[in-house]
Model the fold of this input.
Amino acid sequence: MAIQDLLKDKNEQIDYGSICKKYSWILEENHCCVLSPDSDGLLCGLFMSMFRGWKIVGFYDGKVSVVNKAYLKSNPIFLDIEIFRKEIRSMGHHMLLVNKRHKPAEWSNFDNCIQPNNFRNYDGKTNFRLKYPLATIHMLISIVAWKHKNIKIPESAIPALFFTDGVFNVLFSYPENVLNWLSYLRIHEDWNPLKPIFENDKYSVFTLMKEMDNFFRKRDSISVRRERGDRLRISNKDGSPANIENIQNKNCYINTDAKKRIIDFIKILSELTTWEYKLDNWNCWENMKFSQFKKGDFKGDKKTITIQTFKEFIKKNPLSWAMTSGNNIEYTLESPDKLLK
Done:
């Protein structure tokens, strides 16, 4: 079926008033947060530090977490990753549900999670091609700006906001779906600071290519072998820790070189967006508690995605997961360690 046919009845728009009422914590000041350690998570941290005074206290990548010990009891909010726990507040944008007609009873575990695909009741079975195509930062900006309409974003932020999560690729690969989601997020309304980002008449395709090229050059200038400059690697493929020192003594800190690289990248993002890197709000480099989890996927388990296998999977009480394709789910189990314990 053509994507235009799949989209023909998808004309709803987000109700920011209801979201801000139900998830009022996203608008509050001075919360602590844990980020995904990539450009999307870092942008979310910069934005919330700048406009809501949030403190960044750790990172989580689905295999390990590092959280500042002083903030373990602060009920930190997880940005750019959905946490399948009622008591934990989170925000992400992955495809999570397999079949909307067979929603697990435990689905209420996401009651405290801001999630665009869940808002539209999208599932992998019928809506995978229509899944949210942008990054967490784009929805986050729109929610906060709906309440605080004085937020402005300069044109210089376009490369950073188009780079994250490969949005610049998605714009031209899946324009129908992107346009539908831009309408859903009400980005065309004058109050939304993303309007001049996505509806910028000054940026020709050629100009955008040059700006993206400049961004890649800045990113590459701080990259090293096997580590791109736009992400903090805190684990290896096998789940073992990376760039985390002093684990045995349980008073961990981020490797000095890795810390410098990622701060250099944060400063690149800060310069482009004009969101200040407030050093006092980034308490995520030392005095950290390291936790390790079990990472797996359906393909590795030699399982196909069905209603039954998904129900069995949910019974395992996963910590987080993402439907990465129509036939695979990558997941995290809270073992051997516990999150925030």
Q: What stands out?
A: The CA atoms of residues 155 and 203 lie 9 Å apart. The two ends are 47 Å apart (CA to CA). The longest strand covers residues 286-297.
